[in-house]
Amino acid sequence: MTPFEAAATGTAKYQQLADWFAARIRSGELSPGERLPSDRQLAKQFRLSPTTTTAAMNELLHRHLVVRRLGAGTFVTDDPLEQNRRLKIGFFSTVSQSNYTRQMLCALWSICEERHCDLVPLFRTPEEIEQTVADYRLDGVLVYNRSNIPLELIRKLRRNGTPTLLLSSVLENAQEFTVGYSNEEIIRDAVRYLTGLGHRQIGFLIDNASTLPNNLRLDNFMTAMWEQQLPVNPAWVFSSNTTPERLRMYFTALERPSAVIVGNQMLTPKVCQALETCAISVPRDLSVFCIDEHDDARNLYPQLSRFRIDVQGFSAEGVRYLLAQIRNETLQPGHARFYEFVDAGSCAPPQTKGPAL
Predict the structure, then answer these.
(1) What is the C-alpha to C-alpha distance for residues 162 and 40, in angstroms, rounded to an integer?
(2) Do residues 148 and 166 make contact, with C-beta atoms less than 8 angstroms apart?
(3) Residue 145 needs a FRET pair 20 to 30 A away by CA distance; which of 3, 217, 225, 309 works?
(4) Does residue 268 come out as left (phi exceeding 0), alpha (psi in the -120 to 50 range) or beta?
């Protein structure tokens, strides 16, 4: 057998070793039914740790290129069809015409290709998901976490043996099977940022507060303000029906906050238009911060400081964690914020009003 040498790349050694064996199995250098050396023998032969060789054999096992026989060892599969079978990962979403969904889909597609998996995008209602998983014989499932996805469905799929994760917005009551950014952390960071600049009068604008993640963001704003021991003026909080006229009234009120948090990116263009219509100078007259980045953020005026959700990052983490579950490996989701701060200069310390003449 030709020697194996790990390359100095970003790919893990066990994956390189698995790819090396896979190439020799498919080329015929390793014959169907041929017995492979034990994990310890491979470790000694290739000067690797037994952990690495075991992980490589498990990878080949889940690619259906080898079989393990109790008391006999590891053998190249003798089924030529199984040699070309890759893990099938289903990605379920209830919405298709969304740029955010497309971002996730593109990220998952490239990551699954790197991990030698097939991604199957499926746009289904929650009621259709369970049957679709069975029809497509999926090895694992990722579900875009929206408010219409019942948690009991996810738990049922997992109980029935299908590794399943919710993706995008982490739920505090389901952290064991959700991967993404935390709405609690992202709102807390926004409030801390503004209070760090000296703001004590902060408003919050969001639309459709009955849907996920908007409902979580509104609740977490109230909690974050309480943690900072700051009062919340109900007149400064919009949670629905944020029409252009209501926004104009909000920004031209005699008493308005010194800073405003825009709770979802779909509202950002309306806010920008209202600010321009009302001749509000940002940040001189008002500091404005957005929780997430609008698809056309660079072309909006005024430019608003914001958090940018790391879709690529949490998608990669979701695939990594799901594959670990499929392979019965012990792995906990990594803790990362999966968002970054973008400073567009729309926030500044509040203006100090001079004494009345």
Answers:
(1) 31
(2) no
(3) 225
(4) alpha
Q: Which residues of the chain have pLDDT under 70?
A: 1-2, 8, 10, 80-85, 147, 328, 330-335, 353-357
Interval 331-350: pLDDT, tens: 665 567 899 999 999 999 99
Neighbours of 179 (CB within 10 A): 26
Rounded Cα distance between 308 and 305, Å, is: 10
CB under 8 A, 24+ apart: contacts of 240-244: 240/207, 240/208, 240/209, 240/210, 241/207, 242/205, 242/206, 242/207, 242/267, 242/270, 244/270, 244/273, 244/274, 244/277
Rounded to the nearest 10°, the torsion over CA 43, 46, 49, 53 is -60
In this structure, the dihedral spanned by the alpha carbons of residues 283, 288, 293 and 295, taken in order and rounded to 10 degrees, is -70
Structure tokens at 335: 């803790």
Block residue for tokens 């909006």: 300
83 by Cβ neighbours in 10 Å (0-12 / 13-18 / 19+) ranks as: middle
Among all chains, which residue has been given the structure tokens 């929780």? 291
With beta carbons less than 8 A apart as the criterion, state whether 106 and 76 touch. no
Pair of tokens at residue 84: 């070309």
User: Do the beta carbons of residue 276 and residue 248 sit within 8 Å?
Assistant: no
Give me the amino acid identity at 181. Y
The DSSP-derived string for 54-94 is HHHHHHHHHTTSEEEETTTEEEE-S-HHHHT--EEEEEEES
Whole-angstrom distance, CA of residue 271 vs CA of residue 288: 9
If you search the block for the tokens 């499926």, which residue do you land on? 122
Per-residue pLDDT reduced to its tens digit, 271-294: 999 999 999 999 999 999 999 998
